[in-house]
Amino acid sequence: MPSALTDGWIELLAGIGITEAAAPLATAVLVLPLIVSALASLLLPNNLSALGGVGVAAAGLLTASLAQGIQVSTAGSEPVAVWSGSPLSLYWLGLVIGFSLSLGALPSFRLVPAIVVSVAAALAVGPFALAFPQGQSSIASTTDRSLPAYVAAEARNDPRVGTIVLVPQADGGILARLERGAGATLDQQSTLAATGAESTDEIDELAGNLVSRSGYDVGTALDELGVRFVVLTEASSEDAGDAASAVRARAAVSLDGNAAFSAVGDTRYGLLWSAVDPEGGRAEAAPQDVVGPFGIAYTAGLLLILLVAVLLAVPTGLSLERARSGAPVAGIDDEPGEATGQFDDGTDDV
Question: How much is the average pLDDT of 245-269?
Fold first, then answer.
């Protein structure tokens, strides 16, 4: 059960008289038939497949539980935990395998258990599936840009134009990120093309010298990173406070007094500054080793796995012949004497 329940799930439970505090229990009751069915597969004879399915579920659940307590990165002043969605998917896969084996072992009366478990599981996850169409998800549809229109217009001519986005934090710090073109959207994200640690250090160093006056050579850093604009956003509602307001005011004063920038104005995304280029050239950074050898090897591995899966799924002549053959196999359902063609007539040969 996710730690943060969607409003749609809470409203659905409230409509049938279940309080928010009882929501985890209600979810557990709905998932319980699937769990019991999966565990029942361990009681089957020759349950090697059942052990594999339940083992996969146990490994996924254990990994997801451990992942929620591991925080190896930060986003500004907030720690970021390891994503537990992938092991949870493995957990659900193991439960489905165990349930399928239990259902297949029933000689009859399969329809009712299948309907009960399927309906209960659908009710457990249904509100989450409907959250996005109902506008209750944390992810929402938006435009094709996340930066001011002034930057988006420049990006039409120069798709690699860089923008430093500064976000005040509640602890008095600054979150800095580098965005290309009209801004980063969710469908453009890729872990294979994520910014490396070296580039992040350069961005952090540049941002620290932008929000405070220093003797740092800003022009050279802007040229190396291909930065043309700086956006200073408002602090988010949960981070709004005296510390965030103070660091935002200090950053605005520092950027206004920096000869390397020219103020453009206030936009709905925040205050915008443009880098001054005395020579009239573009501060453009060409992508270098965006994917790298690891990305190429990773992609090749995925394609190889896909190719093997497709080849295994293609029916062969032997499999088609077996499917068409309806001849019974001797020795499975016949008596021993019938299978071997030998009969005892009650007399012994002399």
Answer: 85
